[in-house]
Known about the structure:
This protein is of the alpha/beta class. The chain is 27% helix and 23% strand.
Amino acid sequence: MRLRSAGGGLSAHKTMIRLKYGNTNTYFVNGLLIDTDYAGTLGAFYKALKASGLGAGEIRWILATHYHPDHMGLIGELTARGAGLLLIDTQRDFVHFSDRIFEREKRTFVPVNEGAAKIISCAESRDFLAGIGIQGEIVSTPSHSEDSVSLILDDGDCFVGDLEPLEYLEAYEENAALAVDWENLLSHGAKRIHSAHRPDAVTSTCIQSEKERTIWNTFA
Ligand SMILES: [Zn+2]
Protein backbone atom coordinates (compact mmCIF):
# COMPACT_ATOMS: atom_id res chain seq x y z
CA MET A 1 0.00 0.00 0.00
CA ARG A 2 1.28 3.40 -0.87
CA LEU A 3 -0.41 6.45 0.47
CA ARG A 4 0.65 10.00 0.04
CA SER A 5 -1.35 12.64 1.76
CA ALA A 6 -1.05 16.33 2.36
CA GLY A 7 -2.90 18.27 4.95
CA GLY A 8 -3.06 19.01 8.62
CA GLY A 9 -0.70 21.93 8.41
CA LEU A 10 1.54 23.93 6.15
CA SER A 11 4.37 21.44 5.97
CA ALA A 12 2.55 18.21 6.80
CA HIS A 13 3.26 15.85 3.96
CA LYS A 14 3.13 12.19 4.71
CA THR A 15 4.38 9.24 2.71
CA MET A 16 3.23 5.99 4.27
CA ILE A 17 4.06 2.66 2.70
CA ARG A 18 3.63 -0.92 3.82
CA LEU A 19 6.29 -3.36 2.66
CA LYS A 20 5.57 -7.06 2.95
CA TYR A 21 8.34 -9.49 2.06
CA GLY A 22 7.86 -12.21 4.64
CA ASN A 23 5.67 -12.58 7.70
CA THR A 24 6.04 -9.11 9.15
CA ASN A 25 4.54 -5.85 7.95
CA THR A 26 7.27 -3.26 7.62
CA TYR A 27 6.12 0.34 7.44
CA PHE A 28 7.80 3.36 5.95
CA VAL A 29 6.77 6.82 7.10
CA ASN A 30 8.65 9.89 5.90
CA GLY A 31 12.10 8.32 5.94
CA LEU A 32 11.53 6.15 9.02
CA LEU A 33 11.33 2.38 8.60
CA ILE A 34 9.29 0.70 11.32
CA ASP A 35 10.41 -2.91 11.86
CA THR A 36 12.18 -5.24 9.46
CA ASP A 37 11.48 -8.89 8.81
CA TYR A 38 13.64 -11.87 9.83
CA ALA A 39 17.36 -12.19 9.20
CA GLY A 40 18.04 -13.46 5.70
CA THR A 41 15.30 -11.42 4.01
CA LEU A 42 17.49 -8.60 2.70
CA GLY A 43 17.07 -9.58 -0.97
CA ALA A 44 13.32 -9.80 -0.62
CA PHE A 45 13.33 -6.49 1.23
CA TYR A 46 15.11 -4.67 -1.59
CA LYS A 47 12.75 -6.23 -4.10
CA ALA A 48 9.72 -5.00 -2.13
CA LEU A 49 11.34 -1.62 -1.73
CA LYS A 50 11.87 -1.29 -5.46
CA ALA A 51 8.32 -2.42 -6.20
CA SER A 52 7.01 0.28 -3.88
CA GLY A 53 8.94 2.95 -5.75
CA LEU A 54 11.19 3.76 -2.81
CA GLY A 55 14.93 4.11 -3.14
CA ALA A 56 17.21 2.53 -0.54
CA GLY A 57 18.58 5.99 0.25
CA GLU A 58 15.15 7.14 1.36
CA ILE A 59 15.43 5.03 4.51
CA ARG A 60 17.02 7.49 6.89
CA TRP A 61 16.09 5.90 10.21
CA ILE A 62 14.93 2.53 11.53
CA LEU A 63 12.82 1.89 14.61
CA ALA A 64 12.05 -1.64 15.79
CA THR A 65 8.80 -1.97 17.71
CA HIS A 66 10.73 -4.58 19.72
CA TYR A 67 13.74 -6.85 19.30
CA HIS A 68 12.13 -10.21 18.60
CA PRO A 69 13.73 -11.86 15.55
CA ASP A 70 10.89 -11.19 13.11
CA HIS A 71 11.08 -7.44 13.75
CA MET A 72 14.77 -6.62 13.63
CA GLY A 73 16.52 -9.17 11.42
CA LEU A 74 17.82 -6.62 8.90
CA ILE A 75 18.71 -3.74 11.20
CA GLY A 76 22.42 -4.57 11.34
CA GLU A 77 22.68 -4.77 7.56
CA LEU A 78 20.61 -1.65 6.86
CA THR A 79 22.48 0.48 9.37
CA ALA A 80 25.78 -0.76 7.93
CA ARG A 81 24.49 0.67 4.63
CA GLY A 82 23.86 4.08 6.12
CA ALA A 83 20.47 4.15 7.84
CA GLY A 84 20.43 5.44 11.41
CA LEU A 85 19.06 3.34 14.24
CA LEU A 86 16.57 5.04 16.51
CA LEU A 87 16.69 3.15 19.78
CA ILE A 88 14.39 3.86 22.69
CA ASP A 89 16.18 3.69 26.04
CA THR A 90 13.89 0.88 27.25
CA GLN A 91 15.10 -1.23 24.29
CA ARG A 92 18.82 -0.88 24.89
CA ASP A 93 19.22 -4.09 26.90
CA PHE A 94 17.28 -6.14 24.34
CA VAL A 95 18.99 -5.41 21.02
CA HIS A 96 20.90 -8.71 21.09
CA PHE A 97 17.95 -10.82 22.21
CA SER A 98 17.69 -12.50 18.80
CA ASP A 99 21.38 -12.98 18.03
CA ARG A 100 21.57 -16.47 19.49
CA ILE A 101 18.44 -17.51 17.60
CA PHE A 102 19.95 -16.42 14.28
CA GLU A 103 23.25 -18.06 15.19
CA ARG A 104 21.55 -21.33 16.02
CA GLU A 105 19.64 -21.21 12.74
CA LYS A 106 22.84 -20.30 10.87
CA ARG A 107 21.20 -17.21 9.37
CA THR A 108 23.09 -14.45 7.65
CA PHE A 109 22.86 -11.46 9.94
CA VAL A 110 24.80 -8.52 11.25
CA PRO A 111 24.40 -7.84 14.98
CA VAL A 112 22.97 -4.47 15.95
CA ASN A 113 25.58 -1.89 16.81
CA GLU A 114 23.86 -0.03 19.61
CA GLY A 115 26.96 2.11 20.07
CA ALA A 116 26.12 3.88 16.82
CA ALA A 117 22.42 4.28 17.62
CA LYS A 118 20.58 7.44 18.49
CA ILE A 119 19.19 6.59 21.93
CA ILE A 120 16.28 8.64 23.21
CA SER A 121 13.50 8.27 25.76
CA CYS A 122 9.84 8.17 24.78
CA ALA A 123 9.49 11.62 26.33
CA GLU A 124 12.07 12.93 23.86
CA SER A 125 10.51 11.25 20.86
CA ARG A 126 8.13 14.02 19.77
CA ASP A 127 10.94 16.52 19.36
CA PHE A 128 13.19 14.01 17.63
CA LEU A 129 10.46 12.95 15.21
CA ALA A 130 9.53 16.55 14.42
CA GLY A 131 13.15 17.09 13.46
CA ILE A 132 12.92 14.34 10.82
CA GLY A 133 9.55 15.47 9.47
CA ILE A 134 7.20 13.24 11.44
CA GLN A 135 4.46 14.63 13.64
CA GLY A 136 3.86 12.10 16.38
CA GLU A 137 5.18 10.31 19.39
CA ILE A 138 6.64 6.99 20.52
CA VAL A 139 5.16 5.38 23.60
CA SER A 140 6.16 2.33 25.58
CA THR A 141 3.64 -0.53 25.20
CA PRO A 142 5.29 -3.31 27.20
CA SER A 143 2.44 -5.83 27.43
CA HIS A 144 3.92 -7.90 24.54
CA SER A 145 7.54 -7.56 25.66
CA GLU A 146 9.39 -5.20 27.96
CA ASP A 147 11.05 -3.43 25.04
CA SER A 148 7.90 -2.98 22.92
CA VAL A 149 7.03 0.51 21.74
CA SER A 150 4.37 1.97 19.46
CA LEU A 151 4.53 4.96 17.15
CA ILE A 152 1.45 7.17 17.08
CA LEU A 153 1.17 9.86 14.45
CA ASP A 154 -0.83 12.96 15.23
CA ASP A 155 -3.25 12.13 12.41
CA GLY A 156 -4.20 8.85 14.15
CA ASP A 157 -2.09 6.28 12.31
CA CYS A 158 -0.62 4.01 14.94
CA PHE A 159 2.04 1.31 14.53
CA VAL A 160 1.87 -1.23 17.33
CA GLY A 161 4.09 -4.16 16.32
CA ASP A 162 2.87 -7.26 18.15
CA LEU A 163 0.56 -5.59 20.62
CA GLU A 164 -2.51 -7.77 20.92
CA PRO A 165 -5.68 -6.24 19.47
CA LEU A 166 -8.02 -4.17 21.53
CA GLU A 167 -10.74 -6.74 20.97
CA TYR A 168 -8.74 -9.25 22.98
CA LEU A 169 -9.39 -7.34 26.13
CA GLU A 170 -12.88 -8.74 26.22
CA ALA A 171 -11.68 -12.28 25.58
CA TYR A 172 -9.23 -12.40 28.43
CA GLU A 173 -10.23 -12.79 32.00
CA GLU A 174 -7.48 -10.54 33.15
CA ASN A 175 -4.94 -8.67 31.15
CA ALA A 176 -4.22 -5.50 33.03
CA ALA A 177 -0.99 -4.81 31.12
CA LEU A 178 -2.77 -4.91 27.75
CA ALA A 179 -5.52 -2.66 29.07
CA VAL A 180 -2.95 -0.12 30.24
CA ASP A 181 -1.24 -0.13 26.83
CA TRP A 182 -4.51 0.47 25.00
CA GLU A 183 -5.51 3.18 27.42
CA ASN A 184 -2.21 4.87 26.69
CA LEU A 185 -2.56 4.57 22.91
CA LEU A 186 -6.14 5.76 22.83
CA SER A 187 -5.39 8.71 25.07
CA HIS A 188 -2.67 9.65 22.58
CA GLY A 189 -5.20 9.69 19.74
CA ALA A 190 -4.57 6.33 18.06
CA LYS A 191 -7.25 5.75 15.41
CA ARG A 192 -5.97 3.46 12.66
CA ILE A 193 -4.03 0.53 14.02
CA HIS A 194 -1.26 -1.01 11.93
CA SER A 195 -0.16 -4.37 13.30
CA ALA A 196 2.88 -6.35 12.32
CA HIS A 197 1.13 -9.60 11.50
CA ARG A 198 -2.42 -8.77 10.54
CA PRO A 199 -3.16 -9.19 6.85
CA ASP A 200 -3.63 -5.62 5.74
CA ALA A 201 -1.95 -2.38 6.59
CA VAL A 202 -5.02 -0.57 7.67
CA THR A 203 -6.14 -3.40 9.87
CA SER A 204 -8.05 -0.49 11.05
CA THR A 205 -9.57 -1.02 14.31
CA CYS A 206 -11.01 2.44 13.80
CA ILE A 207 -11.65 3.13 17.43
CA GLN A 208 -15.18 4.16 16.72
CA SER A 209 -17.39 1.17 17.31
CA GLU A 210 -19.80 1.10 20.20
CA LYS A 211 -18.11 -1.96 21.67
CA GLU A 212 -14.70 -0.34 21.66
CA ARG A 213 -16.08 2.82 23.13
CA THR A 214 -17.49 0.74 25.95
CA ILE A 215 -14.12 -0.83 26.59
CA TRP A 216 -12.56 2.59 26.53
CA ASN A 217 -15.13 3.94 28.95
CA THR A 218 -14.19 1.30 31.48
CA PHE A 219 -10.74 2.92 31.64
CA ALA A 220 -12.04 6.41 32.18
ZN1 LIG B 1 6.23 -10.51 15.58
